[in-house]
Amino acid sequence: MPIYEYHCPTCSNKFEKLQSMSATGADCPQCEQPAKRALSVFASISSGESSGSGEFSQMPVPPMRGGGCCGGGCFH
Ligand SMILES: [Zn+2]
User: Fold this and answer.
1) d(CA 18, ligand 1 centre) in Å
2) Distance from Cα 27 to the centre of ligand 1, integer Å
3) Which residues form the Putative regulatory protein FmdB zinc ribbon domain (predicted)?
4) Shortest CA distance to 50 belongs to which of 18, 15, 13, 6?
5) DSSP helix/strand/coil, 46
6) pLDDT for 60-69, tens place per residue?
7) Residue 1 alpha carbon to ligand 1 centre in Å
8) Structure confidence at residue 23 (pLDDT)
9) 35 phi and psi, to 5 degrees?
10) How far apart are CA 56 and CA 7, in angstroms?
11) What is the mean pLDDT of residues 43-54?
């Protein structure tokens, strides 16, 4: 489930709200006026604290293994 970042034009408050993809908006928790969605990030990428694997999103995809005889690592 994505976290949406909102910016309130009324009181300039910025907050994040966890919502479903179909959600259309959110109200500011401070002034309870409709806020504008600033951007959206996925919770698993943005926090990285809960699982400790946030850094791994930057790692390159490992080479395929199990394909062919030895994945190109040998000289037959
Ligand atoms: Zn507000």
Assistant:
1) 17
2) 8
3) 1-40
4) 18
5) helix
6) 666 766 656 6
7) 24
8) 85
9) -105, 160
10) 29
11) 52
